[in-house]
Amino acid sequence: MNQRIAPAANENHPAAAHGPTVRLTAAQALVRYLAAQRVTCEDGSGRTEPLFGGVFAIFGHGNVAGLGEALYHWRHELPTLRAHNEQAMAHSAIAFAKAHLRRRMMAVTTSIGPGATNLVTAAALAHVNRLPLLLLPGDIFVSREPDPVLQQVEDMHDGGVSANDALKPVSRYFDRIVHPAQLLTALPRALRVLTDAAQCGPVTLALPQDVQATAWDYPASFFTPRLVNFHAAAPVQVEIDAALVPIFRAKRPLIIAGGGVLYSRASEALQALAAARGIPVAETQAGKGSLAWDDPLNVGAIGVTGSPAANALAADADCILAIGTRLQDFTTGSNSLFRHAHVIGVNTNGFDAIKHDGLAVEADARLTLAALGGELGNWRADANWTARALQLASAWRESVEHLTHAPQDRNCLPYDADVIGAVQRSSSRSPTDDIVVCAAGTLPAELHKLWRAGRPGAYHVEYGYSCMGYEIAGGLGAKLARPDREVIVMVGDGSYLMMNSEIATSVMLGAKLIIVVLDNRGYGCINRLQQACGGAPFNNLFDDCAQGPLGAPRIDFASHARSLGAQAEHVGNIAELEIAMQRARASMRTYLISIDTDPARTTEDGGWWWEVAVPEVSSRATVRVARERYDEALAARGGREPGRGAHEAAHAEDNAADETQDDPGNEEPT
């Protein structure tokens, strides 16, 4: 690598105005620039550390010669980590950023073709969850001389299209670098998006392989180490004044804490405002951990997977202060939960702040809470409202204690609440030191209600995209970010089978995970939803799937994990699980525990309607009954008589599963 420093060739050279130059390939310049970015350490010491924790890489012909060589040279300043699946390594990078509350991040590089398109799902996950992720896929030749190259997707109508264009809809910023000089503008733009609270999300810099290898004289100043400042807007007074009007009128306010509370480091400000003003706080999936689980005013999870305390208060609230949440349907109960409240949306992203017809305060959560607190004077929530919130929160904490400590019937399979209780009881230290990681299926609902998150970052559940397969890869990213914490991945058998190869990566990197696999022999969550919508059990649990003469396999997850280098065991009940958790905590390497669980049982306490469209016409009586309930719920959302909805019925509508055969005699006319 030639890193000579020399004056620009002549005064007309694009870099001449910047003084001395460094001749580097585009790939070398990109890596050197990333390695130069610094952030202040979170420990308060005043020291700095790299903004990028490293680069996950799976090399191929599209990136090994250019970017691979550059990463090798800078491997000490910017570590390169090998993974086993492109989507999974991007999930790990996302989880690393989430565990650092968006203050540090990672990059991911792949070859062209399938390596690049494997990134699309992970990019969508980062986009939905507003998390920083730098994608560096290889691309086809700009020169087009060797076209079509191996793995090239040829568009018959646009010669400039490559597989990487599939990443455009799921990137917050996309750029294809067709000349080395373009990095001078593309990299600062990318960094701004990655570190801006309002824009934060995935960035894709597509890197044609001939451009990666092309040299150019870069300004030496471009690579000067620099301290990155994270941008978040302060509230403007006119928006604070507008928000104060409905707050002053409110007697029954409720705060909904979203992920923005955590990312803005606003937990202390939230707790102070809630305590001073007597306002109960409910938490979204992304915001869980904003308040300690035992804070008197923490009323628990909100929405479809919410606690009875939070949802009862949300239904009666006259003012909702939605802080750092994008108000997706699981939070709002498909817009049916708090229809009669004034909503104030506090969010750095104006697109999110105005949701649910919200009055927007487009600003940082911590700064906004401080500004509101200073303007509220003697205002407090109605004393009866605060007393009701305190009573409901206390009662819910007692219910959680009961649900997670229920005596076990040896003749019945345990369910998720039993496993959650055993996992948290197994900690010899405070269970708040653990980080739980999960993503899809029934477990996020149970964890949202029942996991006791004692501090920010203790609850790491990806539910914005609800992406099966995130769990183990996400656990790896969280462990790389927080190596001093016990990272516990809780995952269903369905998600495990979708993506598990990063177990081997965790062993290779010495990033120890505890993985608890709840085996209910299929997709139990969707099986219940299917029946609640009137459908027959079909294609979800193994027993209800098309099978060959050998039937469905009996999967030994413990043996599988051992084959990937982990320690592992299968346990037969909750008592054995608690003992196995002690062995797992004492282990120095990734440790998997599998346990058989009940696919039908869930926690009945709490929950809310979720809109899942049910067919208007069906020959099945159960579908017609489900459609009637659906229509009633739609009417209730419109302000008429309340009805029960499909998701609520998933816990209790046994009659929806009674009829499992088609009934042609009941065919309805179309």
Could you give the topology of this structure?
Layout: E1 5-6, E2 21-25, H1 26-36, E3 37-40, E4 48-50, E5 52-57, H2 67-73, E6 80-82, H3 86-99, E7 105-110, H4 114-117, H5 120-129, E8 133-139, E9 173-176, H6 183-195, E10 202-208, H7 209-212, E11 215-219, E12 226-227, H8 237-249, E13 253-257, H9 259-263, H10 267-277, E14 281-283, E15 298-301, H11 308-316, E16 319-323, H12 329-332, E17 342-346, H13 350-353, E18 359-361, H14 365-375, H15 383-403, H16 416-425, E19 435-438, H17 443-450, E20 459-461, H18 470-481, E21 487-492, H19 493-498, H20 502-509, E22 514-519, H21 524-532, H22 557-563, E23 567-571, H23 574-586, E24 591-596, H24 621-637, H25 646-649
Parallel strand pairs: 3-12, 5-6, 5-7, 7-8, 8-10, 9-10, 13-14, 13-16, 14-15, 16-17, 17-18, 19-20, 19-21, 21-22, 22-24, 23-24
Antiparallel strand pairs: 1-2, 2-11, 3-4
What would you say this structure looks like, in words?
The chain has 670 residues and is an alpha/beta fold. The protein folds into four domains: 5-227, Thiamin diphosphate (ThDP)-binding fold, Pyr/PP domains (Rossmann fold, 3-Layer(aba) Sandwich); 237-397, Rossmann fold (3-Layer(aba) Sandwich); 404-545 and 552-596, 3-Layer(aba) Sandwich (Rossmann fold); 621-666, no CATH class. The protein contains 25 helices and 24 strands. The chain has a six-stranded parallel sheet, with helices on both faces. It has a six-stranded parallel sheet with strand order 15-14-13-16-17-18, sandwiched between helices. A six-stranded parallel sheet has the order 20-19-21-22-24-23, sandwiched between helices. Helix 1 (26-36) crosses helix 2. The model is unreliable at 1-13 and 640-670 (pLDDT under 50). Belongs to the TPP enzyme family. Residues 440-594 form the Thiamine pyrophosphate enzyme TPP-binding domain. It is an enzyme of class 3 (hydrolase). Residues 241-372 form the Thiamine pyrophosphate enzyme central domain.
